Amino acid sequence: MLHGRLGKEPAPARGQTRTWAERAPRDAPDQALEAARRLDARQAELGRQLAARPPEWALRAWGVPPARAGALREDWERRAAVVESYREAAGITDPAQAIGPVPAGQAQLREAFHASVVALELPGDQALLRAMGRGQLEAQVNTYQRAAALAPRDVSAELAAADRRCKDDMVRAQAAREAGRDAEADTAGILAEETAGELAVLRVADAARREWAEAHASEAAQARAAEGELRRRDQAERVAQAGADGQEPHVETGEEFRARLPQIVAGAEARYAAEADTAELEAMNEPAVWQQPESQAQAEATPGPSWEPGEAMADMDFEAEI
Predict the structure, then answer these.
(1) pLDDT per residue over 297-314, tens digit each?
(2) Is 0.90 surpassed by the pTM of this model?
(3) How far apart are CA 166 and CA 174, in angstroms?
């Protein structure tokens, strides 16, 4: 509606663009349009290169490209070109990971990311998981583990056992009373009352646990999804390594992965701490940089247009981000 009022053609739906030229506005300057055409030419070449030597992430996504020329090979090349062009623009070099985290900043780069998600045929939630780095996934698991460590104790098993004991004592007391065994009935009645008091305390604890679980349900779901993605990546690495060594790959069970998970999180925290210490030391030892006076810099500046891919992409204001 807004585009109609402005007399403009509507922008493509998110993720439905295939080229950089489609992501450029109609009234973009000639410099930006020329940059988009160069990126598209590069994108087509990337598709042909990947079909000749497909990387690991492409083989996982679409399998081996068809050997014979035709529509199927062209479709494989087109999809691979869209993703590889985004990877190159985003600086992704990991051969095992198709797309990285959702980029921030440039609208064209974010649209290229969504176009890559469509090319890879990933569902929305799965696309976000695949886009996350290992550190982000480990952080999600670690966040929930810390919250669970402070959660009210799970007393569901104790509650069920106490409820059974209370019912058994009440039945035994009634049966003894009907049989005229008053002493036995009194003893069973006392036990039933004690168990009823225990039940009251356990019900309060169970209610607190349920309330906590409801408040942290989304974190628990994210942690389970992150665990599954970490397990998938680890298993894929093991299968690839076993294949390279000529061995039969070991399929890790869920119990084995959960046993290794504390080590994974601990290793991630150690890496983060080491990186933070290194960054702090580098900042302290960074020498002062001489700044050229502004007047002298302006005098020495040489006029004339110059094209840089990053600058041209920044000038392309994607209309879908209205």
Answers:
(1) 444 444 444 434 444 444
(2) no
(3) 12
